[in-house]
Design a protein that fits this description.
It contains 21 helices and 35 strands. By secondary structure, it is α/β, with parallel strands linked by helices. Strands 29-33-28-34-35 form a five-stranded parallel beta sheet. It has a four-stranded mixed beta sheet with strand order 3-16-18-17, with helices on one face.
Length: 669
């Protein structure tokens, strides 16, 4: 997952291949809570791994549920509706589903059985109204205190003493606010329908019916069959009991599928469609209807039981006027698809957007305008007309995962403008690997993926600097010196003589290298320390002299140039390997400074050294590198010279990032 402050998406051209969706967020958190409240143990397969499920699992553990994890399988031992813990402080982050459903369950249990629980989240969660749910629960006798502001979290549930619940009259809840309130009540009231039927009446039109359909479906899986009277009245039968189904498989997330359905409609070729696995026509999620909406805009789409294939059909896309009550979350993706459509797209019945992770109507309108679109918005609608000319834009994400994922699709714009996603790690809420998944199926514009090179003499700190810059930007990292040392290590392990040029070149072509923060992996094995061994370095110096080896490794190094970008360090990155790099840095730290750094490094490892000898060795190495016939050490003519003799690593990183920012088209960061 990208943990950078921002992520620059280069201009993208096409898409194709296969993606596997993470588990459904809507199903995952509902199933977790039901498993925790039910009798028996539930073995959950393919549970979504995200911030939302993490906080729900933490909450269940705090309430006394026994939880075991084995890879992608989670075992939850339910409490049978009994409070195993009578007091707990429950932090639920930015998960609206968790806050609403856990609040409903704990309010009833704490009141009936005698408990005292606090519910809190991130600051934005404390701005999201929960008054309608509280108003439905308090008449039942639930003790609920809003500790900061009435109608909003944080909450105090129960007062530590048991109280009788009043369930004789229908429980009334408004239908036009949030389906999560009704979901919370449906799941929680199953724990109380012991002596009589429990009835919930919906006031007004029920929005987001598909999400209630998911709740009813899952309740039935756990043994509770709620009577649904035309979405206006729900009856939980007397003596209902939540009972574990034993095993449960979570299907792929339909809302997450929307980004890739849209991607296929925008950029996939009909002969090589984008395939989305983990969800299809058998889905219980309402957002599967997004496929029909995408087809209305011109997408070619085929649905099987558990997969979807999508490609570009009508182009440009067609504008639509659509009531989005049935797909409120996925409708955000339609708003970005509208950027590629002829005419004005109008999305209505989306008032629920205003009480989500942010005010999504206002946020979407603001960010769409940055890209050049004409936007009109109201209380429950938004209208989008495609840009006449696209603009480069830094997209604010408002700590909202769906905004980040939606606007990544803007990188396919016809004017080849880059798009910056601010705070990209917010996707961890539902799809931690979203950007990695996106990059695995896209083709960038030719020469569109940026490259930064960091060259310099031995011990100048180029590797440390380049790695830190790559981490800051979320780019791939290439340590060219490690590439040669890895070839040497492969030769040592295979018994290849250092004078067998052909065999060494073959080894070089088959190297499987991956660079992580401070680590180097070869064929999946961490070889970071091994590559630093003196004998490996000595052999690397010999194998690097062979032209066939250098040619093979040049091809390997070029392969690291991938979306979203690359930072490469070495001695000839900016002159030979990547002469067209967007930014070239050449470090000019003095031999005296480099010798001092190396001396301190060796001493810290308990290795004795002589600083004068180290300086002499470095100066001799510089002379050899600068005068060698192949790829001599020298700065590229357009390189930025950076004397880092008196700079810390952090200061050097700041200097490089500022130089990079000066070359970017974004006015807002």
């Amino acid at each position: 997952m990208f943990k950078t402050r921002f992520l620059d998406l280069p201009p993208l051209l096409a898409a194709g291949g296969t993606v596997r969706l993470p588990g459904s967020k809507s199903i995952s958190n509902r199933v977790l809570l039901l498993a925790g409240l039910s009798r028996g143990t539930t073995v959950i397969h393919d549970l979504l791994e995200s911030d939302d499920t993490r906080v729900m699992l933490d909450a269940l553990a705090a309430l006394g549920c026994r939880i075991e994890r084995d890879g992608r399988v989670v075992r939850v031992e339910g409490t049978g509706g009994a409070l195993a813990a009578r007091e707990a402080d429950i932090f639920l982050g930015n998960s609206g589903t968790s806050v609403r459903t856990v609040t409903a369950a704990l309010a009833l249990l704490a009141t009936a059985q005698g408990g005292r629980f606090t519910i809190r989240g991130v600051p934005r969660m404390h701005e999201r109204p929960i008054g309608d749910l509280i108003d439905a629960l308090r008449p039942l006798g639930c003790r609920i205190e809003c500790t900061v502001k009435e109608g909003y979290p944080p909450l105090l549930l129960g007062d530590g003493a048991p109280h009788a619940l009043n369930l004789s009259a229908p429980i009334r809840v408004r239908g036009n606010v949030s389906s999560q309130f009704l979901t919370g009540l449906l799941q929680a009231l199953c724990l109380t329908a012991h002596a009589q039927d429990v009835v919930i009446e919906v006031i007004g039109e029920l929005i987001s019916r598909p999400y209630i359909a998911i709740t009813l479906n899952l309740l039935a899986r756990f043994g509770v069959h709620v009577r649904n009277e035309d979405w206006t009245r729900f009856t939980i039968p007397c003596d209902s009991r939540l009972t574990s189904p034993g095993k449960f498989h979570v299907e792929g997330d339909a809302s997450s599928a929307s980004y890739f359905v849209a991607l296929g409609a925008i950029a996939a070729n009909a002969e090589a469609p984008l395939r989305i696995e983990g969800i299809g026509s058998a889905s219980v999620q309402g957002d599967i209807d997004f496929v029909a909406a995408a087809q209305a805009m011109g997408a070619n789409a085929v649905l099987a039981k558990d997969w979807i294939e999508v490609s570009r059909g009508t182009w440009p896309l067609r504008a639509v006027a659509l009531d989005c009550n049935h797909i409120p979350d996925a409708a955000m993706t339609l708003a970005v698809m509208a950027l590629y459509a002829t005419g004005t797209t109008r999305l209505t019945n989306i008032a629920s957007w205003r009480v989500k992770e942010t005010d999504r109507i206002a946020a979407m309108a603001a960010e769409l305008r940055k890209l050049g679109a004409e936007v009109v918005d109201g209380d429950d609608f938004i209208e989008i007309t495609a840009p006449g000319k696209w603009k480069p834009a830094a997209i604010h994400t408002y700590d909202d995962h769906r905004i980040a994922m939606c606007f990544s699709l803007g990188a396919f714009n016809p004017n080849q403008q880059a798009v910056r996603i601010l705070d990209p790690q917010c996707v961890a809420k539902t799809f931690p690997d979203y950007f990695e998944t996106l990059f695995s199926v896209v083709t960038p514009q030719e020469h569109g993926v940026p490259i930064i090179t960091v060259d310099g003499p031995t011990a100048s700190g180029k590797g440390t600097l380049a790695s830190a810059v790559a981490q800051a930007l979320g780019y791939h990292f290439l340590d060219s010196g490690a590439v040669y040392r890895a070839t040497a290590l492969a030769a040592m392990r295979s018994g290849t003589p250092p004078d067998d040029e052909q065999r060494l070149a073959q080894l070089a072509t088959k190297l499987d290298l991956r660079f992580g923060p401070g680590q180097i992996f070869m064929s999946g094995q961490d070889v970071t320390e091994t590559l630093r061994l003196e004998e490996v370095g000595a052999l690397a110096s010999k194998v690097s002299a062979w032209p066939l080896v250098r040619a093979a490794l040049r091809t390997l190094q070029l392969s690291f140039h991938r979306v979203p970008g690359l930072v490469a360090d070495g001695r000839d990155m900016g002159t030979v390997i990547f002469p067209g790099a967007d930014l070239k840095i050449f470090l000019t730290a003095s031999a005296a400074t480099r010798a001092d750094r190396r001396h301190k490094q060796l001493i810290s490892k308990g290795i004795s050294s002589n600083i004068d000898s180290l300086r002499a060795e470095l100066e001799a190495r510089d002379a050899r590198d600068q005068t060698r016939s192949v790829s001599p050490l020298k700065p590229a003519v357009d390189a930025m010279l950076l004397d880092n003799s008196a700079l810390t690593v952090e200061a050097s990183v700041v200097a490089v990032l500022q130089a990079w920012e000066d070359r970017r088209p974004f006015k807002e960061t």
